[in-house]
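REQUEST FORM: STRUCTURE PREDICTION
Request ID: SP-0412
Submitted by: Lab K.M.
Chain count: 1
Length (residues): 270
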Amino acid sequence: LGALNCILESIERFRFDEIAFFFNGGKDCTAVLYLLHAVFEWYQSKHPETNESDRICLQNMPVFFLEDTNSFSEIDRFIGEVQDHFNFHVTVIRSPSMKLALKNLVETSTPCIKAVYMGVRKGDPKSETLDFFTRTDVSRGWADLIRVNPVLYWDYADLWYFLREFDLPYCVLYDQGFTSLGGRTDTQPNPALYDPETQSYKPAYRLTDASQERCGRAPPLPPTPIRPPRPRRLPLSPSTHRQRPSRPRSLPLLSSATTAPFPCSPAPSC
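STATUS: Completed
RESULT:
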């Protein structure tokens, strides 16, 4: 109920045209998408007198996607399928970071966006201090926004129970062993889901240890450093050249006792 109440409270706190939704095609944002749709439909049924242009629905809400040239084609395809199903438009923001994307969103939106729905859960990086409604840290260069986090207190099992119990579509990569999606260069199927008998990966919902959710994520490899060429050593002049001691022309012969292999264990007695 916490997630539903969070969305209902956001509708009461903000005008609907002041709220946006960042959707990246991942499992967490996908769960938020279905929750938003359910709550909006319920809320609208309680207010049938609302004009079509003012209806609280996905079609009237700004939905944004942070473009990543390193993204999986499966994610891009899934986002397109979701758009067609719910008949809403996703605006692509080209920005190198979420911080700059949110800043661009606030500066260019009319009316000004004041809150953003996010698919963040406890345990995600930098989520320790978050709550259902959390203001961004303006002192660190973030745009002045309220982050609305409906599934913040869901755990990994809650998320998959919701998606599978209601038979809700999600990105196909999760059926191929991926449990946390990033870019193509820093994401792989979760090793904890590898099945040596079938030599394949189990689907994401089969992961039983939630602490291993991000085991398929790794930082991208740093570029190989270019080593500068080694400086050439100038030959010493004859006056400064130091004579090396001469080596013996031949090594002393080893005795047969020293060349015999050292026994690993005493020979068995006859």
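NOTES: The chain has six helices and eight strands.
Reviewed by: T.R.
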